[in-house]
Specification:
This protein has about 280 residues and is an alpha/beta fold. The chain contains seven helices and ten strands. The chain is globular, with a radius of gyration of 19 Å. Pfam families: ABC_tran.
């Protein structure tokens, strides 16, 4: 029995005009994501991975090709699609609980239900004791937890995460990666995360989408068939990580991916790029 795609990106090309010149950020990108899947997207800076995320979330337009969520064409933002950015973007004059409640601003829920949902998501991200705190009283990791809670509070079908841990120190980053994996396992929300960190991509993803340099295309989709929770020091983890790094540098096999047929096209290797992560 075939699995119905939850989110489909089909033959998407996105171009921008910069100083009267046309820049192609994405070229003929196709990807299918199933419900409840955790997909990570990795690539060098400027490869179009964040552009792809914004298109999927409905925050950008003007592209060629088609993006569908639950069979419906994505034409703009929706409460069904949440997004978390690298910066928490909390309002400094609002408490943590009121910042999280902003995720329910247009959800049409009662005051009592809003209070219950905010309390539940404060617990989910481990910020119960900081409901009345202001952003300046939080560490970077705590602020990012609040941003994740705001993205989750209205129970979106898909949560897009744009390098949410990129500005954090290594220890905090590793801790929050583990927490995000636990949240995903519990909530069963489809997640799509953009990162430049290969370890993060392999640790979190069911599949790792490897992007080529501009114009951004999908070079390879690497399945991560490792049990969870994952052990970063295991040889199996190291093998997958090495494969992704090789693909980023254009040296891995670019034969048809084992993912959904037709999801991506082989791309000829390019000159080596600096390893990311």
């Amino acid at each position: 029995m075939s699995v119905t795609a939850h989110l489909t990106i089909k033959n998407v090309t996105r171009q921008f005009s910069v100083d009267s010149q046309t820049i192609t950020a994405l070229q003929d990108v196709s990807l299918s994501v199933t419900e409840g899947e955790f997909v990570t997207i990795v690539g060098a800076s400027g490869c179009g991975k964040s552009t792809l995320l914004r298109l999927g979330a409905g925050l950008d337009a003007g592209h060629q090709g088609e993006i569908r969520h639950r069979g419906n064409v994505v034409l703009g933002p929706s409460l069904d699609r949440g997004i978390v950015f690298q910066e928490p973007r909390l309002f400094p004059w609002l408490t943590v609980e009121r910042n999280i409640a902003l995720g329910l601003e247009n959800a049409g829920v009662s005051k009592a239900e809003k209070k219950r949902l905010v309390k539940e998501h404060l617990e989910l991200v481990g910020l119960t004791g900081f409901a009345k705190a202001y952003p300046h009283q939080l560490s970077g990791g705590m602020a990012q937890r609040a941003g994740i809670a705001r993205g989750l509070v209205n129970r979106p079908d898909v949560l897009f995460l744009d390098e949410p841990f990129g500005a954090l120190d290594a220890i905090t980053k590793a801790h929050l990666q583990g927490e995000l994996q636990s949240i995903w396992s519990k909530e069963k929300i489809t997640m799509i995360l953009v990162t430049h960190d290969v370890d993060e991509a392999v640790f979190l993803g069911d599949r790792v989408v490897v992007m080529s340099p501009r114009p951004g295309r999908i070079r390879e989709i690497v399945p991560v068939n490792l049990p969870r929770p994952r052990e970063r020091t295991s040889s199996a983890f190291g093998e997958v990580r090495a494969h992704v790094l090789q693909s980023l540098n254009g040296t891995a096999s670019l034969a048809e991916t084992r993912a959904t047929a037709g999801e991506t096209k082989p791309v000829l290797p390019r000159p080596a790029i600096a390893a990311v992560g």
